[in-house]
Inverse folding.
């Protein structure tokens, strides 16, 4: 019985964490694009590239690699960024989107090939269940909330990557934890 309960809990977790592979609709992409053009926070060429990213949706999870360089004074910029992150992740976590790694840069660039030197302050890896979830989060944070991020950052880049290896994958860890708990419960019965 304990194994059956663990299996049911895992299936519910899996459906929430992995989703159903639903792709973002063209209607939602077009709505985001028009709203973004009206806000004028980014140039149109950049928005076209982001729009193409959404139009090539495969319905699968991905990880965004983010590099951040804060504006001076850094304490004030950090406050803006923390306010933005609280609103962003408050919405994203409901959609199984979460940081995988957050870290402060502790030294100069070790290797640079073909790019100018930049002294980044921090890097983040953020897991998204799907492009549809990223788009929903971006729409939620548009306008004033996104302005907090723009006030905080001197430079940034965000590049989406398809994960190939992740030994700390929650899908595996939650499954193993539930299996262990079910085994312990079975021994107690």
């Amino acid at each position: 019985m304990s194994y059956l309960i663990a299996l049911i809990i895992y299936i519910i977790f899996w459906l929430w964490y992995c989703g159903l592979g639903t792709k973002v609709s063209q209607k939602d992409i077009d709505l985001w694009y028009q709203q973004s053009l009206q806000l004028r926070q980014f140039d149109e060429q950049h928005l076209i590239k982001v729009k193409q990213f959404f139009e090539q949706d495969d319905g699968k999870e991905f990880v965004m690699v983010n590099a951040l360089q804060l504006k001076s004074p850094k304490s004030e910029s950090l406050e803006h960024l923390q306010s933005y992150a609280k609103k962003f992740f408050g919405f994203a976590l409901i959609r199984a989107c979460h940081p995988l790694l957050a870290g402060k840069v502790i030294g100069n660039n070790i290797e640079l090939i073909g790019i100018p030197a930049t002294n980044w302050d921090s890097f983040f890896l953020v897991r998204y269940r799907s492009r549809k979830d990223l788009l929903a989060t971006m729409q939620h944070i548009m306008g004033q909330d996104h302005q907090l991020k723009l006030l905080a950052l001197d430079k940034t880049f965000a590049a989406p990557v398809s994960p190939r290896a992740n030994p700390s994958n929650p899908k595996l860890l939650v499954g193993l934890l539930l299996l262990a708990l079910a085994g312990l419960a079975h021994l107690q019965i």
